[in-house]
Amino acid sequence: MHRQKKYRASTPGVAWLLSELQIESLYGREALKNLRPAKSDQLEQLRQSLAELEIMVTAARNDKSFFDQAGSIFKCLRYINGSLDNLEAGQVPDETELLEIKGFAMLLTSLKNWYERSGLQLPSVSFSDIEPVIKILNPDRTVVTSFHVHEAYSQKLKEIRAEKIQLENCILQCTDQQKRDELRDQRARLVQSEKAEEHLVRENLGRQLLEWVTRMRHNGLAAGRFELLLAKTRLACQFNCTCPEVFAAAEKVPLRAEEMINPEVEAILASRGKQFTPVSIELSPGTTLLTGANMGGKSVALLTLAMNAELATLGFFVFARRFCMPLFDFICLIAGDGQNQASGLSSFGAEIIRLSELTALTRQGIGLAVCDEFARSTNPSEGSRFVQALGEFLQQSGSYGIIATHFDGIRIEGAAYYQVIGLKDKNTIEEHTDRETLLQKLCEKMDYRLLKINDDYQVPKDAMHIATILGLDSEFLAILRRHYQS
Amino acid sequence: MGRSLAELIEGYSCVAIIGMEKNAGKTTVLNHLLSSRPPVVQAITSIGYDGEDTDQVTGTDKPSIYVGCGTMVATASSLLGQCDFTRELLRFTGFHTPMGEVVITRARSDGFAQIAGPSTTAQMSALISMLHELGATQVLVDGAAARKSTAAIASSEACILATGAAFSPNSDDIVEQTRHYTGLLTLPEFKSDAAFTCKSEDANNCILLDQDGNICGRVSALSDECADQIAGRSGQPTTALFNGAVTRPMLQRLLDKCRRLEWLQLVAEDGTRYLINSRQKCDLIDRGARLAVRRQVNLIAVTVNPTAPSGLKLDGAELCRNLSEKINLPIFDVCAAQNQTFGRKAPQHA
């Protein structure tokens, strides 16, 4: 079977969510592996899969037992493509393969029946009728989950087995060792005939099953797609996600994100008894610059934005109150310390490699470029020129770019500016001893929301203030203050 | 003599048969139990692979396991073709062995079985639960030779130890070693919350506890340092908890270092983890050390196979007599009971 490589998420948030998805069957995992972001020419398909997810989410919100019912079969659903391959190759199926196929047919039939009753009617999920497979493998009227080469398949088999049981009874009652050995030899010959006849029966069953192989494969794929959809639904319901509104990139609509949440960071905060401050931002085609105090949540805001945009292209609901965006051809994140000594790259080197990828991508389509403190690890005088150039490049590229920076004096014609609101009541400094309390105080004083400002922006000079709140050594601070004054 | 072996295991939902050595007669015991017609649904599985016609180590003929109609057999899928009972495949288990996935079947006739089951404790316990769910009242587990039977012991309610001439041609030696081994299996149980919390630690770790049950040391049980650290606690009440094996070289080093050991308690997961000879055990006890286990084995009987694969045959009755003088457990001669093998129990499914 043609296998393609697993999808590599562009953002750490999506990588985390994909790894957390509850998918149990190999069919579901295969569907996840084949997951790909929609390209700008696949807007209709993306809208359709989001509409399907909407139907699922509505159904799940209306029925508490939805997940139990819809997901009931996946834990025990075995991947039978190996057995189907063998059937198609003309091999006589063995007992375990027949048990596997029977189990599959029973589970898929029950899923199909539930699905039809549920009235979901999703265009991408349909199941073929494979109930006759169960009948082939269960000649009795009562349907059981087990399988055996039934006497009903062959009169000859029935006779051999009856004779074998008789012989076994004789062996039991026989006290003469020699006579007993003779009976055992007879039994061994009967066992051979039984096996030969069973082989014929299995051969015949294999022939009958052959015409159902395509339908069984189809059902396997549909089950995988459905399980992935179910996992997306579970995620949407668990986090109260919303359906993103997606537009054609050519329409040049702004990316509008209202009250976004980052579930991974939110979970970490919740474990410390803190809350995540939702962030909102609007990006027009071109460049948006974001500044703000250290520890003001710029990186989290950028990662959250990139994660949600990527989720939308993958057909997931997003972590925001409202999220409208053009369907991007690419989402490129340049963030974090990409230093990799093994590959001989410094942080700056890694950024430049990534930048080259970005410039190539912008020539192929319209995308979202998210750059967190670009060129931060080189000297500030060159670094700010790199940021200026990146801003200008993105501004004229037609793509949507956002750059978080601490560099002063970046001026880009037509760019938008955002700032983390930052520290409240800067003048009150309280004495705290332990680091945990200091950090707690800092978080309380920080307003993580983003504010759109006019273009004569000032990079906030809060570094010393934050260092003071964090309890930096007073002697060190005295020296630092001297330098601020000069 | 009192009750038969089959009567002894009545009421236990899972019984493991472990051997002192290969060819100690485990299969003969299993066949005897399978043919004893108990009014219950029996199931059988094995730790790893057993049941081959010829012993793969000694090259000698071995008895095969013979199951009766209605018995459940959990075995690896690639061995099904070598089983000759008519069968119904009940379910897959999801436990994979080198011979394929373990499948649960039900015999619809008598016949010979080739059995390979899972080899880890967790999988064996889960398999036993599956067999019970499918209706088996009593599961028999064919354990491996002594040292490899931890999984069988850990998952079972009761245990039968098979010993015999395969172990040694010398009757006294058999008696002495069997006595030593039953002694290890039935060491007293160590009960403590600390033991529970340390359980998930790395294998082969040794954790030292002081008299209040606080951890005061942690060392690899396979390094020389282990004996040195334990000896360093000399005179202070100490419990040494072992997650893996308690080895002979480690204990010898300890014995060489400490003349008195009344301050020391050694605790292993179960008796099979004490890889020590009877002289060492005597030395330890003479110097005051206490030996314990986290899980005591419910050893209910010892069986004796007086015939060795080499053809050597000892006097079974005498061997049983000598064993019962040293071991306070019912002793059975499997050859004397063999006239019942290949028997068949009453049909289970009407």
Describe the structure.
The complex is a heterodimer of chains A (486) and B (350). Chain A has helices at 12-20, 26-33, 43-62, 66-70, 81-88, 95-118, 131-137, 155-173, 177-210, 213-238, 263-271, 298-313, 347-364, 380-397, 435-445, 463-469, 474-485, and strands at 245-247, 255-260, 279-283, 286-291, 322-326, 330-334, 367-372, 400-404, 416-423, 446-453. Chain A is elongated, with a radius of gyration of 32 Å. The mean pLDDT of chain A is 89. Helices cover 52% and strands 12% of the residues of chain A. Chain A has three domains: 12-130 and 212-231, no CATH class; 151-208; 242-485, 3-Layer(aba) Sandwich (Rossmann fold). Chain A is of the alpha/beta class. In chain A, the strands form two sheets. A six-stranded mixed beta sheet of chain A has the order 6-7-8-4-9-10, sandwiched between helices. Chain A has a four-stranded mixed beta sheet with strand order 1-5-2-3. In chain A, α2 packs across α10 (213-238), α5 packs antiparallel against α10 and α6 (95-118) packs antiparallel against α7 (131-137). The longest helix of chain A has 34 residues, at 177-210. Chain B is an alpha/beta fold. In chain B, the strands form five sheets. A nine-stranded mixed beta sheet of chain B has the order 6-7-5-2-10-1-11-19-20, sandwiched between helices. Chain B has helices at residues 5-8, 26-34, 121-133, 150-155, 171-185, 193-198, 224-232, 248-257, 278-286, 316-326, and strands at residues 14-19, 42-46, 49-50, 65-67, 72-76, 87-97, 100-107, 111-113, 115-116, 138-145, 158-164, 205-209, 215-220, 238-242, 246-247, 264-268, 274-275, 290-293, 299-305, 331-333. Chain B starts with a helix and ends in a 17-residue tail after the last strand. Chain B has two domains: 5-186 and 297-340, 3-Layer(aba) Sandwich (Rossmann fold); 193-293, AICAR transformylase, duplication domain (Cytidine Deaminase, domain 2), CATH 3.40.140. The radius of gyration of chain B is 21 Å and the shape is globular. Residues 338-350 of chain B have low confidence and may be disordered. Chain B contains ten helices and 20 strands.
